[in-house]
Hints:
Layout: H1 17-31, H2 57-94, E1 99-103, H3 110-113, E2 121-126, H4 128-141, E3 148-152, H5 161-166, E4 177-180, H6 189-202, E5 208-214, H7 216-219, H8 226-237, H9 248-258, E6 261-267, H10 268-275, E7 288-294
Parallel strand pairs: 1-2, 1-4, 2-3, 4-5
Antiparallel strand pairs: 5-7, 6-7
Helix pairs in contact: 1-2, 2-8, 2-10, 6-9
S-adenosylmethionine is lined by residues 10, 16, 18-19, 22, 104-106, 108, 126-127, 130, 153-156, 181-183, 186-187.
Amino acid sequence: xxxxxxxxxxxxxxxxxxxxxxxxxxxxxxxxxxxxxxxxxxxxxxxxxxxxxxxxxxxxxxxxxxxxxxxxxxxxxxxxxxxxxxxxxxxxxxxxxxxxxxxxxxxxxxxxxxxxxxxxxxxxxxxxxxxxxxxxxxxxxxxxxxxxxxxxxxxxxxxxxxxxxxxxxxxxxxxxxxxxxxxxxxxxxxxxxxxxxxxxxxxxxxxxxxxxxxxxxxxxxxxxxxxxxxxxxxxxxxxxxxxxxxxxxxxxxxxxxxxxxxxxxxxxxxxxxxxxxxxxxxxxxxxxxxxxxxxx
Length: 296
Ligand SMILES: C[S@@+](CC[C@H](N)C(=O)[O-])C[C@H]1O[C@@H](n2cnc3c(N)ncnc32)[C@H](O)[C@@H]1O
């Protein structure tokens, strides 16, 4: 059965709805008592005006209980993939890497929160529609950003990522760390592979790539997780269908073929073991994975 969906929101000039949904997860997390937060992103709320959000820890707990079935699986991956990426980002910074590229950044606030990485130059690449909305909201909120270069690129349109990044001072001779979170599965398989190939050309030896993928079983509806299928249906109907599915094996093969060396693969239960997230609202449904790969 094909998931019905509307024409893409973003080609219609609208910001990504799924980027708003992941920002909502971060905003709900940030409304919990400090000891219960898994990421603690105080900026998420500023990016989703008009969305109903809990204001107090008690409201946030209530929100989680009411939405646990549908949102639980996504709380784990959205919050913990970010924790995992930030670990690799810090490791890269400690090793002297000074360029961070966030691909499909959405309403990500990594550069705003990791202000101790003072030497880092940040490059946020995103679909022009989502990025324009983010920049508007940043302007309205008065949030001060560090040294961030905003690079509008549509990964489906065949524009050169290398040219776009070179235009704002990215140095392909210097290693970088790339986070590509919550994006790969929204691309068509050829655009996914093309972007990986472009990345391998952009990433000097010593660079690290961190990305996540959706299981093929979600796309072909054989996944045992009904809440995940329900979300796939919802986002597809709103113009952002899942288009690329992988398995740990095909994900590893794709990065190798593009010229990277996979150094770690993590599934949701691995992330929960590593970073916590054992609360009942944060379900361990095992439907996505992460790949960490190096350019040698
Ligand atoms: C689920 S959001 C993830 C955002 C952010 N990385 C996060 O984890 O919150 C998907 C992101 O992919 C971006 N995206 C989807 N299709 C894209 C395309 N063809 N070109 C560029 N960006 C795209 C959207 O604009 C959006 O920011």
